[in-house]
Amino acid sequence: MESPQEQQTADAGKPYINTVAALCIAPSGVGDELSEYVAQAVATIRDSGLPNETNAMFTNIEGDLDEVLEVVRAATMKLAGQGYRTGVTLKLDIRPGFKGQLTRKPQLVDEILDKRQ
């Protein structure tokens, strides 16, 4: 049975394929400090409107697979389009029928750990 989110997207012609992406984008050959460059890519991700969070190593994004890949491309091109050699590390967790996994996954781990105490 389809979730309301899947049905809504299916009505528009394609199924909703929930995807959580862990993404790291950084240029090469620009020195030791990459924060200014990384911030440009992160700004593109945040401007996308997709749920996201940034930590010390990655920015996580959640949404439909096509939307997530579009944001990954836009964030990559933010640096590559300026002529920088750009490295991209990408991991995808594709889980049809689910939503809100950016917050639910850590909650589930916390619930498991709380039971151990």
Structural notes for this entry:
The protein is α+β, with helices and mostly antiparallel strands and 117 residues long. Helix 2 runs antiparallel to helix 3 (65-80). 45% of the residues lie in helices and 24% in strands. The longest helix is centred in the middle third of the chain and has 16 residues, at 65-80.
Labels describing this entry:
4 strands, alpha+beta, 117 residues, four-stranded antiparallel β-sheet, 45% helix
Stretches with pLDDT under 50, minimum 5 residues: none
Mean pLDDT: 91
Beta fraction: 15-25%
Shape: flat
Instruction: Count the E strands.
Output: 4
Radius of gyration: 16 Å
Number of distinct helices: 4
Kindly, what is the distance between the CA atoms of the first and last residues, rounded to a whole number of angstroms? Answer: 37 Å
Derived from helix and strand composition plus strand pairing, the structural class reads: alpha+beta
In the sheet with the most strands, the strands line up as 2-3-1-4
Helix content: 40-55%
**Element-level helix/strand string:** HEHEEHEH
The main pleated sheet reads as: 4 strands, antiparallel
Outline of this structure?
With 117 residues, the protein is α+β, with helices and mostly antiparallel strands. It contains four helices and four strands, in the order αβαββαβα. The protein has helices at 4-11, 35-47, 65-80, 101-116, and strands at 18-27, 52-54, 59-64, 86-94.
